[in-house]
Amino acid sequence: MKFGYTIIYVPEVDASLSFFEKAFGFGRRFFHESGDYGELDTGATTLAFASLALGHMHFPQGFVAAHASAQPLGMEVAFVTADVAQAHANALAVGATEVCAPETKPWGQTVSYVRCPDGTLVELCSPMGV
To answer: CA 73 → CA 22, 81, 121, 123, distances in Å?
Structure first.
């Protein structure tokens, strides 16, 4: 078995793809003509976005949409970067909300958290051991 996808259900797939392109520099791998599904080029594991309509189809009993929650959901997407402060500033400049400013953790890693306009919680962190 291998980890294949993380899919985030969002109000506007195209808007989320655009934000992640501008904020974090990922390229768009795929965007379905329906506007209901899209993927970013993030390496071996796919980061994808699906419409809330698809979410409601898949989960007829309902689900908690990240953008509708006053607090971030209890999960995050983490991106490793050599320059956490710059990545953090870039994300804020294009519409993210600061959750925690960059700080060096006791184990030596620099970490920050932002919340994207679609509600997704993103950790920005330096590589371990750097």
So the answer is: 23, 23, 7, 13
Region for 26 from its dihedrals, namely left if φ exceeds 0, alpha if ψ lies in -120 to 50, beta otherwise:
beta
Q: How many alpha carbons fall within 13 Å on the CB side of residue 74?
A: 0
pLDDT in tens, 79-110: 999 999 999 999 999 999 999 999 999 999 99
**Which residues share a beta bridge with 82?**
none
Q: How many residues can be counted in the chain?
A: 130
CA atoms lying within 13 Å on the CB side of residue 128: 2
pTM of structure: 0.94
User: Does residue 10 have a pLDDT over 60?
Assistant: yes
